[in-house]
Structures are given as C-alpha cells and as structure tokens.
Amino acid sequence: MIETAGLRKEFVVSAKVGKLRRERRVVAAVDGIDLRVERGETLGYLGPNGAGKSTTLKMLTGVLTPTAGRISVCGLTPVPQRTQLARRIGVVFGQRSQLWWDLPLRDSFDLLRHIYRVPAPEHAGRLAECVELLDLGPLLPVPVRQLSLGQRMRGELTAALLHRPEVLFLDEPTIGLDVVSKQAVREFLTQLGRRGDTTLILTTHDLADIERLCRRLVIVDHGRVVHDGTAEELHSRYGSRRRVVVDLDEPLAEPVTLPGVALESAEGLRLTYQLVDGTNAGALVARLAAAASLRDLAVVEPAIEDVIARLYARGATG
Amino acid sequence: MANHSAGAPVRYRTFIALVSAGFRRYSTYRQATLAGLFTNVLFGFMRTYVLLAVVGRQAAGYDARQIVTYVWVSQGLIATVGLWGELGLADRIRTGDVVADLLRPVPPVFAYLAADLGRAGFAALVRFVGPVLVGALAFDLRWPQRPATYPLFVVSAVLATVISFGCRYLTEAAAYWLLDARGPRIVWALCSNALTGLVFPLSFLPGRVAAVLWTATPFPWLLQAPADVVVERHSAGGALVLVAGQAGWAGLMLAVAGYAQRLGTRRLVVQGG
Ligand SMILES: Nc1ncnc2c1ncn2[C@@H]1O[C@H](COP(=O)(O)OP(=O)(O)OP(=O)(O)O)[C@@H](O)[C@H]1O
Ligand SMILES: [Mg+2]
User: Fold this and answer.
1) Does B273 sit in the ligand 1 pocket, CB within 6 Å?
2) pTM, whole model, 2 decimals?
C-alpha cells in the first residue's frame, strides 16, 4: 500500500548571525527512510519533537516534494499524482482543519460528498455510521467555528473517512483532547483498524493511543528509522523487563534467588525483582510466599514510555 | 472506483455545490455586509457630485445621466466583482493551512473560483442592488434602452468577477514565493482603484494612455467594461466586442492563475508541524 525508499527532505533554513549576516544552513528533516506498509496495517509512527514525522506524512500525502527518494502510495506517486491520490487517502492533521469554518458541520460533510463525488446513498450510510460512533448528532447544525477542539476533531475524522479512503493518515489526532474524547477517538480508530480494509498511519505523542491501536511501531529520530517492529520487540531489544513488587510483613530470613530473576531494589519491607526475558512470575511468587508472609504483591508490565524515553535520550546524545 | 467514470456533469455539480457554499458562507457576515453597503452608498454620493461637476452636460462620451448611472453601477460592482476582497489563500499559505486545499481531489483554482462566484452572487443581491437602488431613488438614472443590454450586463459582470478573481489569486499566490502577499496586495489595491475606471472613467485619460490600459492590462475589464455595457456607451456591436474581450481576459487570467498554482505547489514548504 505504501512504499518508500531512501526518502529524504532537506529544508534550507536561514538564521541571523550577527547584525546583518544571514547564514543558510541545510537541515535534513527526513534523512533516508525506507518503509513498507501493507494494506490494512495500523502503524504507529513515533519520534521525539522535530524527528520528521509530520514532514514524512506531508510527503506521503503529496503536499511536499521530497528532496530525494522514491514514494509510492496506493500505487501512485504522491506529488505528481496528488489529485488522484487525494481521492484514495484521508488525512487528519491534528492542528489543522479541513472543514468550512463558517458553515454548519453538516454542510461541510455535504460539500465533501460533492468534492469527492461519492454517491449520495453511500455517503449517507457512512455518515450515519460515523455520527453514531462519534456521537456527532447534536453537532451537525453547529457552525464549525463554534465547536470545541474535541468536537471538531470528531468532525475532522468523519470528514476524512466519508469517501472511504484506502489509507488514513493521522498526524496527532488526539492532541489537546480530554480523556473522554481521546477514548472516543481511539475506540473509533480501533474499530476501523479491526475491519482491516483501511490502512492507518498514526503519529502521536500519546503512547496510550499506540498501545491501544498499533501492532507495529516505527520510531524515527533525526529523520531516520531507529526501530521498526512490535512493542514487544521494542521491549526485548531495549531490555525492558517485567517487575514483581512485593510488600512483606517481616524481612526475609534469607534472600530469594532464582534463575532469570534479579533483585532490583530493597527499600525496607518493599522488594522489587526484575524478570529477565521470558521468565514467569509464578516460581518467584511461590518462593516468596513460602519464605515470608506477603502483605501485597504486584506484577508490573514494562511501560512503553520508559523504553521510548530511553530510546529518545540515546538519540539525543548519540 | 465507480464514481470515477462519471464525467463532466458531476464536475459541474461539484462546482455548483462549492458556489452555493461560498454564497452561504458570505451570507453569514451580516455586519461586514451592512458596513460595506453603507460605505459604497456614501462614496456613491461623493463620486456623483464630483463627476457631475466635472462632466457638466457632456464629457468624454458620457452625458450627465450616463455618468450618474456609471457611478452607481460601479459602486455596486466594487463588492460584487470583489475588487478588494481577499480569497484567504495567502493566509492559508502562510500558516500552512493550504494543505487542506491541496489534499482535495479538485484543483485549488477551481475550488476557490467556485467559492468566489458564490460570494459574488451574495454580493450581487445586497452590495449591488443596494447602491443601485439608492442611486435610483436619489437621482435620475439612465436605464438600458436595448433589452439585450440586461443579459449582456450580467455576463459582463460575471466575467469581470472571474478576471478579478484571477488577479487576486495571482496576488495571493505570491505568498508561495514571498511567504506573505503584503507587497503584491498594495500594488493590486493601487491598480484596482486607479486603473479600473473606479475613480473616473478611463476615457478621461489621454487616448494613448487609455489604449495601453485596455490592451495591456486586465484592469479596465473589471469595472469600466461592465459599467460601459450597462450605460450603453457603445453600440450593441461594440458592447459585444467588449464582453468578448472580457472573456479573453478571463480565460487568460485563469490559465495564468492555474500555472502559478502549479509552480507554487511545487516549491511549497508547508509551514507548521
Ligand atoms: N517549513 C520548514 N522550514 C524549515 N524547517 C522545517 C520546516 N518544517 C519542518 N522543519 C524542520 O524539520 C524537522 C522535522 O519537522 P517535523 O515537523 O517533521 O517534526 P515532527 O516529527 O512532526 O515533530 P513534532 O513531534 O514536534 O510534531 C524539524 O527539525 C523542523 O525544524
Ligand atoms: Mg509533527
């Protein structure tokens, strides 16, 4: 569905040095990205601020000309075939609107039907579905400028989907939304992803979006791919481990040791163990229960935040 | 893709839908409409008195009734043709919101033209009819004597709007290169005032100067042409030639706007993350 090879985008930035002199510098915002996305995949495209995510999406959607490299989306070359491509993709840029500011939301949807030349019954069906799932009913007669951000985002999502795009690009679709709106959007995208006929490319800084939605993560930094795989692969590659945290009633008589288990910290009566790759918690818990009386016990999954923070930090120094 | 095969008639419906959206959008700006109407009427009176003092009974091919009609029709055309209206393109380029336009399967020039014609339609109802009505109540206007002048004037006004659209599109598309369109806008404001026949009919100028303006610039075709059509300054044949000339300019301006759009898109650096 999407294929890029050696995709690159350079920006010329000119900065003031001294009073009059301006210095022109070339910055590679995207620095050689090879990507292959199959139909129906849901891909989380992550990276720290300024990593080149939005720039990549702009090139994939045909609004920005790459400096070098090849792109194919839906079998088309985005920039030269932008208008054709526009019919087959949907795009939501979190901070921008594609709705008509002064007109009621319903008018925007109606206009999009004409612009994309979607047959009326098909359009009505899909709109009804989105209205239902995203709870848009009461918002339809409201002028877009009077919608709150979260309300508008639900409108934007609908607008991007009414022509049944094969690929949906979402650049920070949950930015600035409250917990409830975020959940609504996530739920909606999850259902869309599950159906399997729409390819989803999603950038976000909200890792909960990713955990809920994406099997595959592509992490970029400084315009390069630093990870491409599942979250589990990410964890094992960067050594994140599950932990067992126990609170004891009394100190252990002697330390509990097991293969694949390492004591990470002991603070008073609280012990934290790390489970090295693939070790189960069962044996450890049984040994602990036998050795002392337990007040409380928790198995903590590794947080994707931690791995990614480590990954970003490594990028910043490296 | 079943909806691909359907050709021109559907395009036409897209265009109409966009025109109608433009109309509705502008109909929501009530205050601006009223303020603009008031200004047009006020200046209508001032221009009438000034030009009547200059023309006397007859000058430069107009008699007094024609010149008064000329004034009120041109006051009505200012907003209809959209001499000073902004398309919003320059701002959208500057902020990067222009991506939303580029991500649609219709060429931006097509979509903006449709929206602008919708705007003009609304303006015609209020900003054209209003001043002409006031002019008719306050003065003795000269109504067309040839019935054919009425439809011809409508065509002429639509073409003038298209030419004006082309000029404004080019002005604003300059933002693709300059990041904003302030400079070109000033030039456009100057030309659209002085060279369109708004301040005074261009036949007041020396023949050579007027000839250069008519042949080498789009400006006289924006206001002077439709106003001359409606006051029947020329014979029926002459009026037809005038409208044909407008059609030529309209085609040319659209072509140039489309070309600029393509060039601009290629060098566009979408601003903002
Ligand atoms: N129009 C532009 N002109 C110059 N440099 C730009 C431009 N747009 C982006 N850049 C630079 O390109 C790099 C990548 O920007 P991009 O917007 O793709 O980042 P991002 O990954 O989307 O970041 P964020 O998470 O903050 O949205 C940044 O260093 C940015 O400064
Ligand atoms: Mg971004």
Assistant:
1) yes
2) 0.86
